[in-house]
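Pasting as-is:
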Amino acid sequence: MNKFEMKNVIENTGNEVKKAVSKGKDIVFDSKDKVFDALDINKDGRVDTEDIIVLGLRIPGVHIDREEFLRKQFMKNYANDVIQDAVKFNPAHAGITVEEIDNIADQVIQYERNCVSGISLALGAPGGVAMVATLPTDIAQYYGYMLRAIQKLLYLYGFPEINVENGVNIDDKTMNLITLCLGVMYGVEGSVASIKILSNALGKGVEKKLLQKALTKGTFYPIVKKISRWFSVCMTKQVFAGFFRKAIPVVGGVVGGGITYLSFKPCCDNLKKSLQDTALCNPSSRKSFDEFDVIDV
């Protein structure tokens, strides 16, 4: 083969490689768009907290029955009348100590953490088109376990039953409360103060109608929208990154294998800390969050 022929072979090979790379990129971008379409449940052109919450709640077993959960946690160590009080009001009202509640909360976090570490479907996929089938499911499962932890922690620290069964017809109050919890988990500014104010207001007997207005129209609503926007930007970046790393995209980075296990606990710990030492779970709490802060409707 002379130099001229070799040059042609090299040029032709280079052109074929460029075509293959271009085709590969087209497949990836097309696949990414399909994943976004699968995740964008409300079809508003972005993946936000509403989409993730609805997806997560559709996973079987994500809904936690408050009464069943509380009875199961306290049946070994407490009399039936104490358990009845915890169900009717909340664990703190029943005289269950803060230390015991914290201990059970740690067990809850560890249990859900162990469950989430098993999500690895996307990691075994070859990438591209094949990941279209696995990524939405993996994302839903990851946040499904997170939603389970949210419900359990809310109930341990005194919140009433929230309507999340089957992820269908979720009211705005419930959607916004869960969004606040996600904001706390990921450290979005303003979310911790909001959940503490809400918890204290419930503990001090502020009317549910006023709290509902505060969650859907008043004090907390701007924070909820802020969390949703922040979440959407992060998910957009991480879904794309996940295609190239063969990992599950979640807020804060793509995760997989052991990283999934490690990333879950800090989020749950953040929520646990925000629910501690409030009037709802600890009547002797000295920290003051004025209930009038939530009656800005």
